[in-house]
Amino acid sequence: MKALSLAKLPELFSLVASKEALYIPADDGAGSARFTRYTEGLEMTDKLNTVRSAKDFFFPQTENLVDFKLKGKEIEISDPRTEHEDFVLFGVRACDARSFQILDKVFLVDPVDTYYQSRREHGTVVTLACTKPEETCFCSVFGIDAAAPEGDARCFIEGETVYFEALTGKGEAFLETVSPLLTDSDDSAVKAQQEKTREILQKLPLKNLSLEGFGAENLLKLFDSEKWAELSESCLGCGTCTFVCPTCQCYDIRDFDTGNGVKRFRCWDSCMYSDFTKMAHGNPRVSQLERFRQRFMHKLVYFPANNDGEYGCVGCGRCLAKCPISMNIVKVAKALEGEVR
């Protein structure tokens, strides 16, 4: 375990930023926390989580895939990618850190998404343990320990000290970069903090959310439930839940004629939209009920059925906080609980 005076954290940020790009969670002009590229004087937010997850750094909201130029009957194709710079994501919470593991199972399986792969290879994730989880948090339901987050390295802020621990080779390289500022330390303060945080986690209102029965064996029973009609009735189809979600991975690909060639780009899409999966023959999910059901069946049934029981949710609570009609995965799980008992 390594230690750093909290007062020297800006010095650590400056040292890291002098060698590679550094992003930290910071408050924007509206007072919302967002991951922001570090510049001298930027302060890390004291908010629990960012409005949007750190997913953007590996799976951005929009990205250019390929460029085309037509010259008569010839097509000139060019790859617009350049080698991504190394970067550090500092202050990622345990829920977002676990989301990368879920996204890896989508983008790093054959055929590998090389755009995502390149960003993952260049990024170092330094997580920050939670000490004040909120009532909307339910990461523990998915086996996530907010007091001991995953990542390449993790840190703990306790009193006037920041403690660091490397978990991977990238994490060791990160600590080596900032080693002139660090001192050796035991882990007694960290263990005491973890114990306090875990006591809080045990008292959260969603701690005992049950997902028992949300497996492949009950797929048809859940799919055919009459409760979907009532649950989806008030859904606006706005897609807010999908855009703040750290694990949603759906995207659309479109071509844009610039007047000097064509750019093919991809952008996030939402299963809640009426034109999602629309094909030449039409849309296979014509009602909001079907689209609503698709989102939550994927999170709670389809994904775990195909990924050794791992759910497509990390309990970050963003959809609970941001849905304009207060409909979220927790309400859906509770409503359907009786269907699988």
Topology of this structure?
Elements: E1 2-5, H1 9-17, E2 21-27, E3 33-37, E4 62-71, E5 74-78, E6 87-92, H2 94-107, H3 114-122, E7 123-128, E8 153-158, E9 161-166, H4 169-177, E10 183-184, H5 188-203, H6 219-223, H7 227-232, H8 240-244, E11 251-257, E12 262-268, H9 288-306, H10 318-322, H11 329-336
Parallel strand pairs: 2-6, 6-7, 7-8
Antiparallel strand pairs: 1-9, 1-10, 2-3, 4-5, 4-12, 8-9, 11-12
| Biggest sheet: strand arrangement | 3-2-6-7-8-9-1-10
Number of domains: 2
Terminal CA distance:
46 Å
Q: What characteristic shape results from the CA principal axes?
A: globular
What does this structure look like?
- A hairpin with a 4-residue loop joins strand 11 and strand 12.
- The model has no long low-confidence stretch (mean pLDDT 93).
- The strands form 2 sheets. This protein has an 8-stranded mixed β-sheet, with helices on both faces. Strands 5-4-12-11 form a 4-stranded antiparallel β-sheet, with no helix packed on it.
- It is 31% helix and 21% strand.
- The termini are far apart.
- It has 2 domains: 202 residues, no CATH class; 125 residues, no CATH class.
- With 341 residues, it is α+β, with helices and mostly antiparallel strands.
Task: Give a brief rundown of this model.
With about 350 residues, the chain is α+β, with helices and mostly antiparallel strands. It contains eleven helices and twelve strands.
